[in-house]
Amino acid sequence: MLGQMSIVDLFRASPTMVVLLLCSIITVGFAIERTLYFKISSTNAESFMRGLRDRLKTGNLAAGREYCKAGKGAVARVMYQAVGSLGRGHEQVAQRLNTAIEVERVEMERNLSVLGTMSNIAPLLGLFGTVVGIIRAFADIARTGSGGSSVVAMGVSEALMTTAAGIVVAVIATCFFNLFVRRIRTRTVELEDAREEFFAIVSAIPARGQAAPARSNSQAPGGHTTDELVSATLLS
Questions:
Q1: Which of 46, 155, 169, 217 is at a distance of 20 to 30 A from 32, taking alpha carbons?
Q2: Residue ranges of the domains in the chain?
Q3: Has this prediction a pTM greater than 0.90?
């Protein structure tokens, strides 16, 4: 009970409370969705790059592609695009890497605007409900002719409930929004660091690949393996 009004009566009397209830459901829903996304897509970037280095250091690009394809998370997807783009020149590979990182960033930011919007509009909706409630309270007093501080206080207290509800929704949305923004920044830095490490790995492929046996690599003109020519093309 809120004074002489129950929660059900409050929702019936104030359509703004219904809107705020919907906003709270949307906020919690998208917060859970983003939390599950970041948890499922979480991966150890350093461990993944060590595994990729072990497979690429001999010039075996096929093993590197299979490793990235089987991996999970943003780093694996970005590195799969990078390994698949080898042989197109350094600038094109770098551009493909940057594009892949931007794609992952857009995916991480998906639905984040909803939380940002809720954190901004929820207090305004609460304030709107309060203003409407106060107007209705004074209109009822003027119409019935009965007033007094107790009557006014009761009407104002009921009207202020929408402001309190709006603030609660905004606080929840803002906390999750800032948390996800921080995670996006951290993962973006991890992807950029993986990009630089990838180029460092590839730069060592020719020197090591020339000393290694050709094994299953196909022979290209001039006696070089295909992977050696790919690495030479990347570094040109």
A1: 46
A2: 15-122+177-211
A3: no
